[in-house]
Design a protein that fits this description.
The chain is an all-beta fold. The chain has 2 domains: 97 residues; 100 residues. The chain contains no helices and 12 strands. The protein has a 12-stranded parallel beta sheet, with no helix packed on it. The termini are far apart.
């Protein structure tokens, strides 16, 4: 079903598609079971299937990516081949190209992510600067805001792990916990502003004493 000027214009063999809005699913040719609601939503999609885009320019550049859900203006805008991504909020996961299995909930959450996968961001600007970092979970407004390539981090709380860029394996729970941490790894902080001033310090297990026979 197509409703709107040039909606589903180039469709040839694709089926079970729904397009509502000017040029929604315009380029679709063989893609199946896509839903596009909004001006230019899923505009470039050709063979991608099982995508849902709600909002102007949501998933506009997607071509072969599948099983993506984008809700909000320009959500997942630059996604081309990424799969299994969910973005809710304007500019959420906007720059994602072929990152997979990411979830972004909140305006500008994971906005700069390009190829990072398996990230979860809940809150406005959470994991905002992440590009290739993977397996991160950030819950709270601006949690892990500056992270770019860091992996396996968990941040829960407003501005938790805010300044972390390339750090790995950190756990921060509480408002501004590990706020200043940039490259420190394997740290755990629980409580408001816990380890607030730590920048590069990392947890290193103390070596076991030598056994004396």
């Amino acid at each position: 079903m197509a409703i709107g000027v040039q909606a589903l214009t180039l469709n040839t063999t694709g089926y079970f598609n729904t397009a509502s809005g000017s040029q929604a699913l315009y380029s679709n040719s063989t893609g199946v079971a896509n839903t596009a609601n909004g001006e230019e939503a899923l505009y470039s999609n050709t063979s991608g299937s099982w995508n849902t885009a709600t909002g102007a320019q949501a998933l506009i550049l997607n071509t072969i990516g599948g099983d993506n859900t984008a809700t909000g203006y320009s959500a997942l805008q630059y996604n081309t081949s990424g799969f299994n991504n969910t973005a809710a909020g304007y500019w959420a996961l906007q720059h994602n190209t072929d990152g997979n299995s990411n979830t972004a909930s909140g305006a500008q959450a994971l906005e700069l992510n390009t190829t990072g996968s398996n990230n979860v961001a809940a809150g406005a600007s959470a994991l905002f600067a992440n590009t290739t970092g993977a397996n991160n979970t950030a819950s709270g407004v601006s949690a892990m805001h500056d992270n770019t390539t860091g992996t396996n981090n968990n941040a829960s709380g407003v501005e938790a792990l805010f300044s972390s860029t390339t750090a790995d394996d950190n756990n921060a729970m509480g408002h501004a916990a590990l706020f200043s941490n940039s490259t420190g790894c394997r740290n755990s902080a629980v409580g408001s502003q816990a380890l607030y001033g730590n920048t590069t310090g990392s947890y290193r297990p103390r070596p076991l004493p030598k056994r004396i026979n």
